[in-house]
Specification:
single chain; 667 residues; mainly alpha; two-stranded antiparallel ribbon; 21 helices; 4 strands; 63% helix; globular
Length: 667
């Protein structure tokens, strides 16, 4: 991991505080509001893990940790959050649908609620409208949740700025701080506090002291992600908008977390998120299992943290509820057979996890860490990937639309047909202009799917901090409850294997959630045969864990071998190439098959009767594509084995060198 070095001159803040500004404490710079880092510094330092957590779950995890470190407040229990943010809104939505009344309106929608007035051709349509008081109550509840969240976040930021002001006063040598001066200082910064925690806020554009110069620049090892973020902030947000834009106050939460860690002395990770259990309370038992080479799974299952226990209990509760729901026959589309398919989907991921971890690497990383990484892949990375893919798909869709406009300008007949019969016009466009569709599929495969998913999986691994993969320090201070006081007996080779298992666990959690979406959400039919075939088709090509294993080669080069030139770009590029090529081949094959059906008149709108293929997913036409896809996966596996063996040899050499150095030191 690249080390971060920071310049240490004393900076004088030039904020318009009416004389309330003061010299910043030595060894740190001062930004707007007295913070030691800028609100624009999210993802600036690739070695920081906590910045990723400010985006996951809209910053809930980071906000909870900030309040715990600052106020000692534990987050509300899970049932309370489910009640407030899931159950009550779901009840509102169900009530809106249940109490909705049918209203007849003209087909052109020109008149609302008038049953007598009709459209120009006499056509009418019927819609359901929920009662106005119920809708207003639902909107009021959503507004209440938003205001409540903003108040809590602004309270945290206000407390941080108060502590920063007192810190500067102590640097001036003031023994007592005038509360009136603190109040005036916060009042002058009230707009900054309000803007920092809005749902969609536009903060100040430049967050640097006015006397800033090159000697204050932080010497940070940048990678492609930090360079892209810096370029985006300086071009789009700064030049075009003139402000720093953020969503769900993610940048402000990350800035506050960095500052709270500095103020409270928690710069190094010492505890879990959510439960805030110190590593020292459960990690010694894990180390004892590794040192004694205990092979009992029961003993490994007992040596887990409170967070892992919560995750397993919640999984068991959800599965029990789903089983009861399936047996009750409330929903005919989710029967006990569908529940069996869901369990098979989970078992497929658990079986691969068994092979990767317990069978081959049980002493390289703990069961506790495997649970956390898998849960992160399932619960956090999948929603993040869906959101980022939606955003990127809008951008790539605009690019494809611009290309289609050039085609329509040159083809007036196709343009007229697009206005009168858009469905058949799109079919003619697909048949007559294959380059446009192949280009669109290329963007979909390599940019939307491969780039977004591989980057999100990397950050899913990066945001989870477990004591297994941290450098273990020797310490004689037995009173420090947050320090792991055991010798570092883990080899470099074992640590590298642990990193690979961790990244594969994130990918397996992500793939498991994605498989559930494909099996139950994206299949054209609800029959069990289609669901099982979809599961089998997605199980025989474990692309996600394979790409994660390939990524782990680059992570080990950077973090264990110390190759400073390896950044996130070099880490995820091979995985993007494999993942994108795999998806691109499948997409192009499906496109060519659909074009042939259109030419033969055997597409969805054709009047030619077709055989019932509701229980068929694959046909003979799919065999060449599957063979080619299998070959690509095999090539990726060979590449990983080749790189992994070469890296393992380097790890063995590093371990031997470390053993020789330790022996010479003892002598």
């Amino acid at each position: 991991m690249a080390e971060t070095s920071v310049a240490v001159p004393v900076s004088i803040s030039s904020e318009p505080d009416g004389g309330l500004s003061s010299p910043a404490p030595a060894n740190r710079r001062e930004f707007r509001g007295g913070f030691s880092s800028s609100i624009c510094d999210i993802f600036r330092d690739p070695s920081r893990r906590t910045d990723c957590c400010s985006i996951a779950c809209c910053g809930v995890l980071s906000s909870d940790r900030n309040r715990y470190l600052l106020f000692g407040e534990l987050p509300p229990p899970l049932w309370k959050r489910l009640l407030m943010y899931l159950i009550i809104p779901a009840l509102f939505i169900a009530s809106l649908n249940y109490f909705a009344v049918e209203v007849t309106i003209p087909a052109n929608g020109s008149s609302y609620g008038n049953n007598d007035q009709q459209g120009d051709n006499g056509d009418t349509t019927t819609i359901k409208v929920a009662p106005l008081p119920l809708r207003l109550a639902f909107y009021a509840y959503l507004i209440f949740l938003g205001i409540r969240g903003r108040i809590e976040k602004r309270k945290t930021r206000t407390e941080i700025m108060m502590k920063l002001y007192r810190e500067r006063a102590e640097a001036r040598g003031e023994a007592v701080v005038d509360p009136n001066q603190v109040t005036r200082y916060l009042h002058q910064h009230r707009l900054d506090i309000l803007r920092a925690h809005s749902s969609f806020s536009c903060c100040y554009a430049r967050d640097l002291p006015l006397d800033d110069n090159n000697e204050f620049e932080d010497a940070v090892e940048e990678d492609s992600c930090s360079r892209f973020w810096d370029c985006l902030s300086k071009t789009f947000w700064n030049a075009c908008c003139g402000m720093w834009c953020q969503c769900c106050s993610a940048c402000a939460i990350a800035q506050e977390e960095r500052e709270i860690e500095r103020l409270t002395g928690n710069m190094e990770p010492k505890m879990d998120y959510i439960t805030f259990e110190p590593f020292s309370e459960y990690f010694p038992a894990i180390q004892h299992l590794n040192e004694t080479q205990t092979r009992s799974f029961v003993q490994h299952a007992k040596a887990i943290s409170k967070l892992s226990v919560k995750l397993l209990k919640n999984l068991a509760a959800v599965l029990a509820i789903l089983v009861l729901f399936a047996l009750s026959d409330i929903d005919k589309n989710f029967t006990f057979g569908n529940m069996v398919v869901m369990l098979l989907t989970l078992c497929q991921a658990f079986f691969l996890e068994y092979l990767i971890w317990w069978r081959w690497n049980r002493f390289d990383i703990s069961f506790d860490s495997v649970i956390k990484f898998f849960a992160c892949g399932f619960l956090l990375t999948t929603p993040m990937a869906m959101i980022f893919e939606l955003i990127v798909s809008i951008v790539t869709g605009l690019i494809s639309m611009v290309a289609m406009i050039f085609i329509l300008v040159e083809d007036s007949e196709l343009l007229d047909k697009l206005q009168t019969d858009p469905k058949h016009a799109m079919k003619d466009l697909a048949v007559g202009h294959p380059a446009l569709f192949i280009f669109s599929l290329f963007l979909n495969a390599f940019v939307i799917a491969a780039l977004c998913e591989e980057m999100i999986k990397y950050f899913g691994y990066w945001m989870v901090v477990t004591p297994d993969l941290l450098p273990q320090k020797r310490s004689n201070d037995t009173n420090n409850c947050n320090e792991v006081n055991t010798p570092n007996t883990k080899s470099v080779r074992s640590t590298g294997s642990g990193i690979t298992v961790a990244m594969c666990s994130v990918a397996l959690g992500f793939a498991c959630c994605e498989n559930l979406l494909y099996v139950f959400g994206y299949t054209p039919s609800q029959s069990l045969g289609v669901e099982i075939q979809t599961l089998i088709a997605r199980s025989i090509f474990p692309v996600h864990p394979l790409c994660a294993a390939i990524q782990s080669i680059g992570v080990c080069k950077r973090d264990l071998e110390g190759q400073r030139g390896v950044g996130i770009g070099r880490i995820i590029s091979p995985a993007i190439l494999l993942h994108g090529s795999f998806d691109f081949v499948l997409m192009v094959a499906a496109y060519l098959q659909q074009v042939e059906k259109i030419k033969e008149g055997n597409d969805d709108d054709s009047d030619i009767p077709k055989e019932d293929d509701s229980d068929a997913v694959m046909s003979e036409e799919d065999i060449p594509t599957l063979v080619f896809s299998f070959g690509m996966v095999l090539v990726g596996y060979i590449y990983y084995v080749w790189q992994s063996r070469a890296q393992t040899k380097r790890f063995i050499a590093m371990d031997r060198t470390a053993a020789v150095d330790e022996s010479s030191t003892l002598v």
